[in-house]
Amino acid sequence: MANKISDERKKEIIEGFYQLSVQNGLENTSIAKIGKHLGMPPSLIMHYFPTREILISNLISHILDQYLMIYEPVIRELETKNYADPNTFVDSLFSRDWNMLFDDGVFYSCYSLIFRNDRIKKEYRLLHDKLRESLKDILDRDDNFAGKDTDLLAEQIFVVVEGAYYYLSMIDDENVYNRKLEAYKSQVYDLLRKYEVQHL
Amino acid sequence: MANKISDERKKEIIEGFYQLSVQNGLENTSIAKIGKHLGMPPSLIMHYFPTREILISNLISHILDQYLMIYEPVIRELETKNYADPNTFVDSLFSRDWNMLFDDGVFYSCYSLIFRNDRIKKEYRLLHDKLRESLKDILDRDDNFAGKDTDLLAEQIFVVVEGAYYYLSMIDDENVYNRKLEAYKSQVYDLLRKYEVQHL
DNA sequence: TATAATATTGAACGGATGTTCAATTTATGA
DNA sequence: TCATAAATTGAACATCCGTTCAATATTATA
């Protein structure tokens, strides 16, 4: 609460940056354009983010926070119940809902920066470690997976999820999209079933 | 063979573009820089590629061709034999070799363009359709998968492969890398085993 | 060899880029 | 209220961007 104006401006700038990046792409969004979009001179943007690199770095933190926020409702739902139906869980993971809330184009643009920037790489790694850890905790709380390698299971589930979004992003045709979606879903169902303790 | 000089120059320009993109990133590689790198004026580049958009489009075709070329030895090996050991096949798919031959950074940069360019999206889609189709053909030729949904199997294998490369690209630590690599490999082994006809 | 087509050059363009800076306005705290 | 700090402005910068164009050199064709 020390610098309230400062914090609000920073937030405003980053969100403006994000919005324009969704529309025109990260690489086509300049500081001048952000300024025009928000009705402020570029020099003000540079007052809060001294270089473009710092700006981008903050945009990435913002995006990764958003990404985490999208997962959170699913994770929290599973944390409250001691056992949640895997089907509903998988359905949430593959829900089309957060395609509306989150722009994959900007996400992959930022992802591609990990190959030349170790700090960004680390930030992406930490995000995914956190997600995997959350899932593992949930699985551990479930008796069906007692004594199983839930670390490995969580890892293998997320690999399918990421691969699925990679492929689904290429698909325009709704029927094809749904068919593929079901294929990837059942792939995760199978993983869960494979790991579950057999009840009689 | 009509325009040999033209074709060679085009190839030279695209490869120069690719090399600089590997070093500095796609978004930091300008026409002027390519010209300087190859010792030719930017106007010559624009003579062969009238706009930057066309240049990028050709770079993407080049990259997707290369991507296909990396898969080809594996695919051809499996085509010649009537039955190839799934293990060696999976090993090849996950071989670290083509990380040396192919730059994932440029690949993902180009991939992120699919979200705002339908032609690029289609080109990526066709590439992956082709790869999946090749794998399906190979599986179909194998008696162990007779009567099985090899289309689905191929799809699910590639989802794991793509997801795997997505995650592995974030890992620097060699031990962690290898551990994850094995997890993803065994995930594909499991898929193959699940689909195989049971022999006694 | 003459002619047409192609390849190559170098200069120039308007505009956009990230960044700097000094001046001014606004808010904060004593 | 007054001094100090923070927020904001607008102009200016060197440099790079993609692109254009007319002129020249080279090659292919008849």
TrEMBL record, chains A, B:
Name of the featured protein: Biofilm operon icaADBC HTH-type negative transcriptional regulator IcaR
Cited Gene3D superfamilies: Tetracycline Repressor, domain 2 (1.10.357.10)
Q: Which PROSITE patterns match?
A: HTH_TETR_2 (PS50977)
DNA-binding region(s) in UniProt? 30-49
Q: Which InterPro entries match?
A: Homeodomain-like_sf, HTH_TetR, IcaR_C
The protein's assembly and partners? Homodimer.
Q: Which organism is it from?
A: Algoriphagus locisalis
Q: What lineage, starting at the top, does this entry show?
A: Bacteria, Pseudomonadati, Bacteroidota, Cytophagia, Cytophagales
Q: What function is annotated for this protein? A: Represses transcription of the icaADBC operon necessary for biofilm production.
- The record places domain HTH tetR-type at 7-67
| Pfam families named in the record | TetR_C_37 (PF18665), TetR_N (PF00440)
A Gene Ontology molecular function term of the record: DNA binding
Keyword list (alphabetical) reads: DNA-binding
